[in-house]
Amino acid sequence: MHNPSPRATGPTPGTSQPVDDRGYVALVRAQASVLHLDLDAFFAAVEQRDKPSLRGKPVVVGGVGGRGVVATASYEARQYGVRSAMSTREARSRCPHAAFLGGRFPAYREASAAVMGLLRSVSPLVEPLSLDEAFVDLARADLPDLELTTVTAFAEELRQRVHEVTHGLTASVGLGTSKFIAKVASELDKPDGLTVVPPGTERDLLRPMAVSVIPGVGPATDERLRRAGLRTVADLEAVDLDELVRLVGKAHGSGLWHLARALDDRPVVSEREAKSVSVEGTYETDLTDRRLMEGLLTRQAGEVAARLRKHGLSGRTISIKVRLHDFTTLSRSSTLSSPTDATATIARLARALLADLDTSGGVRLLGVGVSGLADWIQDDLFGESDPGAPADDDLPMIEAPTSRRTTWAPGMDVVHAAMGRGWVWGSGRGVVTVRFETAQTPPGPVRSYPIDDPDLAPWRLPLPEHDA
Predict the structure, then answer these.
(1) Does domain 206-260 match CATH 1.10.3470.10?
(2) Which residues does the UniProt record annotate as the domain UmuC (predicted)?
(3) Between vectors from CA 71 to CA 66 and to CA 77, what angle results, nearest 5°?
(4) Are 339 and 315 contacting, i.e. CB atoms less than 8 angstroms apart?
(5) Potential cystine with 74: which of 59, 183, 320, 424 (Cβ 3.0-4.6 Å)?
């Protein structure tokens, strides 16, 4: 556990860090009551959990083709330099003996749901960032107090409960006085670690770190700061606000100035309070027909609009989510001048956003969302609706195609009439090779079959229903 000696000039109880150059006071918590939990190497860890023969071995999850991209690498694969967002081609050259698997999103969603359910059982304020990480506001948890010993013991127990509800996955946890500090802390002792940053020691923790630790400092900003001689958070802390604004702009510069001083008063916002409604679907075979994709988006827009109307809501920002064949996930959004709950308007903007994306390589997931919600509707004063669009009840039924012949993707769950459940080791030249094992069995035998063997079929995990 990270536990640096408190600084003599720490904040007084119940107050914040000092005011900024312009007299602005960023109130932050006096106690380490923000928790950030991050499941370790999540996709790869689920694969190792469910495939006993891969435990302790390098595993790479992502696109397995020549243009594929790594989504997650196990810690065993990371020792060979394999990283997320690396091309699969490069990953194979670095670690040719790794197991390269396609994703099994139903299994990932099931594990994620178990963890998020656990977190919501301890605090009503849980802010998921993705399937594998979330913030938790411990100030709203049923704890006797928020002293360091109390929250530390709680975090240790929570990590053990995560291990139990996921049947073996581990999580790294950070505790701090803000979301920024908690997230930084959770990265310091991976995997399966806990780091607590006592109040008043945040700046000591941050100063030696590279500026890229600050959210929003990507490669371009990092290079711009490096050219100005700003490599560490301590370097940023020594620069005044006006200089940072000149370097990176007003909004970004102000954010850097505050975070370099550990000034972060962002609240933990639950999904319900985030006020967004979305629908998405993952498809068995990659979609390549643009008209089909537009039809699916139109149908999803109808579902989103129906949910908005059911709750008396409308929204101004329409967004789409597109996951490509290689696991690259793209998001695009457009904001209206006034909120809407009309299917035709949401669908029209969703299709327009799709038109700007290159989907020629295939799409495995599509989604439509509406945010910026309000509880009122303004008449269409600006002609943003399409008068020729079909009414909601007239929308055609669109179904995603299913392949006539099963594609046996590496890592895919299968079941054999005689051998039971297993997973695809590999396929090619009319043959599919299967290792028969599950999370509850020892490493199992390997058998090969013709790809059209009637005794072999995909096995699918039943999915729970989810509301957006």
Answers:
(1) no
(2) 34-218
(3) 90
(4) yes
(5) 59
pLDDT in tens, 399-414: 555 555 567 989 999 9
Residue 380 contacts residue 389 (beta carbons within 8 Å): no
338/380 Cα distance (integer angstroms): 8
Average pLDDT over residues 359-372: 91
pTM here?
Answer: 0.76
Query: Is residue 38 annotated as involved in ligand binding?
Result: yes
Q: Are 53 and 183 in contact (CB under 8 A)?
A: no
Tell me the C-alpha distance between 268 and 176, whole Å: 13
Looking up tokens 């967002």 gives: 85
Instruction: Name the helix (H) or strand (E) containing 38.
Output: strand 34-39
CATH 3.40.50.300 fits 275-394, yes or no: no
CA distance 218 to 438: 40
User: Known catalytic residues?
Assistant: 133
Query: With 90 as the cut, is the pLDDT of residue 123 above it?
Result: yes
- 297-335, pLDDT tens digit by residue? 999 999 999 999 988 889 999 999 999 877 788 999 998
Instruction: Return d(Cα 269, Cα 279) in angstroms, integer.
Output: 20
Tens-place pLDDT, residues 434-464: 999 999 999 999 999 999 999 999 998 765 5
The fraction of the chain above a pLDDT of 90, given in percent, is 65
CA distance 347 to 137: 36
Q: Which residues does 27 contact at the CB level (< 8 Å), separation at least 6? A: 15, 16, 265
Q: Give SS3 for 320.
A: strand
Torsion on CA atoms 188, 190, 196, 201, rounded to nearest 10: 0
CA angle 281–286–111, rounded 5-degree value: 45
Q: In this structure, which CATH number among 3.40.50.300, 3.40.50.2300, 3.30.70.270, 3.40.1000.20 belongs to the domain 31-198?
A: 3.30.70.270
CA 384 to chain centre: 32
Backbone angles phi, psi at 371, to 5 degrees: -135, -170
Residue 72 tokens, joined: 């997650």
Distance CA 70, CA 50 (A): 19
Listed by start position, the domains of the chain span 31-198, 206-260, 275-394, 413-458
Average pLDDT, the chain: 86
**Rg (the chain; Cα; Å):** 25
The closest alpha carbon to 213, from 175, 172, 244, 182, belongs to 182
